[in-house]
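Structure tokens please, single chain.
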Amino acid sequence: MTTGNPAATDPLWVDEILLQGRSTDICLRLPEPVDRGTLRRLVTGAQARLAAAGLRPGGAAALRLPPSLAYVVNLLATWRSGAQAILLDHRLTDHEVGRALERLTPQVVVAPVRTGGGGLRIFVDVTEGVTAYADRPAVSGHAVIQLSSGSTGPSKVIGRTAEDLVAEVHRYTRIDGVALPGERIILLPSMVHVLGLVGGLLYGLHAGVELVPPERLAGDAVLAAIAADDSPATVLGVPFHIGLLASTRPTGPLPQFKRMTTGGELVPAAVAAAFADRHGVPLGNMYGMTEVGVIGTDLHGRHRPSIAPAPGIEVREVDGELRVSCPASPYVGLSDPTRWADGWLHTRDAGTVDAGTGLVTVRGRLDSQVSVGGLKVDLTEVEATVAALPGVAAAVVVFDGAITAYVQPDGPLSQEVLDELLAERLAGYKRPRTLRLVAQLPRTTTGKLVRSTDALRTAAT
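Here you go.
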């Protein structure tokens, strides 16, 4: 479907994989229902507007749109035009967007002219405008360009082909525990990033699963979305959303609530337990990366914290690092054998692969292993211990010449109390030498905690 550079995406895959089905079938509920016939008409109209602004097959369109029907329509229209979609999170600054556009030189940029809805709306009403940018072909033959979340440093430019996306959509259909045709996905993560994009939007369109973003980013709104229909519902989110639901009490029984599936960071055991106590449904775990999509899952919560490799994905452990099968480098303009080499992606995650069962256990970032006085300390263990303390909403532990913990309190909390609690739970050489209370820990646009020491220092001051 792609033939190198410039991009030459065969647009037929959009209709065959994503837009097929009866015209009357509901695919999105925003909260007004959008059926497949309406979606196809909207996509056709957007194709005409993109072409009029200068988008050509083999070119690229940069989408700087918040989660909205406009985003979905313009994404599908770009691919249906045989062009590359560059996904720019709407929360990026003008400076960040400008740097991306200079590097990726799209033919057109799609951005809001008018936006309606409050700040807590998950999907908003958008009137978009299309402007010409550069009369050049796309920089690569990928169907989609994404920027990594940047939780540990600068964002990377990552490309995936149409074949990659189609293969991942088909991979989802073979995973035990995903939402089934006729069911619903309560969609919480951004569709600019891989979990919401493929695990939510693309899989839902392909499989005939209704996508239902709640009206607001609030626990009661999520539960209201589950209760709004009798069909089974799976909540798709990240650990932040688990905490949100764990602290929200249902007003009545929710037999439609089938399970919650989370991607992103490791879920603290205390948060998982609080969610299970509150809702009594399986909390499934998913491990993936922007570069390759879903890597492994445990959607029934049977193997926590381990996961089983997704169909067609091979995971190896090499010198304590997890490596994932990846036929071609996903990086655009980057040749770094420490990230990808010989068909293997270096995840930079520490972990193990059980030789008997094949189960994969992710231990955290590879750089979380530090030496203190000649003794090895796993910062992931220290961070999990701090995060589980009473009165702690979130925590990040880094090595900054010494072990330093940045802690976001959940109510009154002092450094003295923290130190006393940690003295009961951690050996002396593992305990943070510095404790810093932060009103709000910085997060990426996907909700992951930022681990950059510079950003954490800034937040602490």
